[in-house]
Amino acid sequence: MLGPTPGSHHWSERTDGAMTTREKAHLIWQLIRTQVDEQASRLCYRLNLSPARRRRVSLETIRRPDTGFARECEELAASRYSPALLAHCYRTWLMGAVVGQALSVEADPEQLYIACLLHDLGLTGPNLDCACDTGFQILGAREAWRLAKGQQWSDDDASRLYEAISYHLNPWLSARHHSAEALLLKYGAHMDVAGAYQHLVPEALHQQIHQRYPRHGFREEIVTSIDQTPHRPGSHAHFLRRCGFSKLAANNPLDQRLRQDVTNDANSGR
């Protein structure tokens, strides 16, 4: 047995993100499992055998939570992220929320929104200086935890937010063993970075999402982040880099498709 998925609150605080050999093997198993599952999901979707294709998905019902904490997180994100990374966080939220509709996974709207906005805080500001010692997803999760506790969130709710962020670098999460927020943040982030499971979001919605939050500069910035950030040896980010994750980001089919759309629009004289 490979054991539990590395990334829980307890695991993160105990290890600072350094995986054992068994946990690295678990990550390789996740990479294989998610590739097989995505291919099967894509085939079922094309053949109209997937319930996800028959469910109504829309951006119309997805609303930014109107809470003081959500607004505080928006201001923090705007002050800390580059424009490209900020747009990535918002796309992650919308993509994850649409996948939730497609897969009938119900997340707490505020939890999901805040987790998506804050999930890359470990790549910004003073946190970035600590990435060589602690996995960046843990640095972001810790900051989110402190903010949530400052808003009088319960330990359980703050831990749920923490784990939505600390788990997000895992290629595979189980709906049975992980929260809806962790699952949908993972789907949204991996879709936006590498195009994973992009078929779960219809083309028209991809276009709407990218009109709201364009990808300008994101591909170059995320590839640089993967390749050049001094991630802690043995951390998720360090191990995924060794597995060639930056190549997946560089060849994201979402970027290729959007470039083709621009070319088609230019050729049609739009």
From TrEMBL:
SUPFAM superfamilies hit by this protein: HD-domain/PDEase-like
UniProt-listed InterPro entries: HD_domain (IPR006674)
Domain HD, chain residue ranges per copy: 86-184
Pfam family, one: HD
Name of the protein described by the UniProt record: HD domain-containing protein
